[in-house]
Amino acid sequence: MSIASKKLILGLTALAGLAMGVAAITVGPLRGPNVEYIPLMAPVEFADGRRVYVQKFSVTTAEWNRCYEAGACSIQMRERKSGDDYPATGLNWMDINEYVAWINETSRHEFRLPTLAEWNEMAAEVLPKKKDPIFTDPELTWASAYLMEPQINRSLRPTGSFKTTSAGISDLNGNVWEWTSDCYAGEELGLNADNCPAFWMGGEHVAAMSIFTRDPARGGCAVGTPPAHLGLRLVTDKPVPGV
User: Tens digit of pLDDT for each residue in 139-150?
Assistant: First the structure.
């Protein structure tokens, strides 16, 4: 091989390396969040000064079925003939973790479930005010709660049918209870999320559900009156594009 040919090859190799470096620099920003999969979010300021970005609505049937169609979620949601979008319901703890894992990977953004404290604080302005207990005996606290809790209308309504908070979060006072990341009796028993048998639900009244329950009307409620429906709402600690 001539000296000129060797110089040509070395030159082309250097150019190829430079091109790869430029490509790496260019591709970096493109690996940010995939906005096609980022749900509608709104910032919520908590009393402790934290800002968390909260999904404006519960995860909908249409959003859930994208996960199912991708093969990442085990169950499919039934589409309504009316064309209206409804909350995705009938979800147990394993179901929602499939969805969270999928949306995090697909959106390239880190979402999670709210804590019970976060859920209660952001819902406080739209939830019914608590009444004084019927019984003052601490041993009858459960009876007071049972007798005073309102009767639940189990009819599932379209997304956006209930109240909206001043921060722009809707349906927190609806009849879909939402999973939180707080383990029921976890602190007392020293359990973490991986070993927890039941989790607190965010909803109109206090409830905790077994991780296996999809239909609370058939049992599985660890505490409180069984909720009407079980769904989920995502939050994130990281800023969301466009919000």
Answer: 555 455 555 555
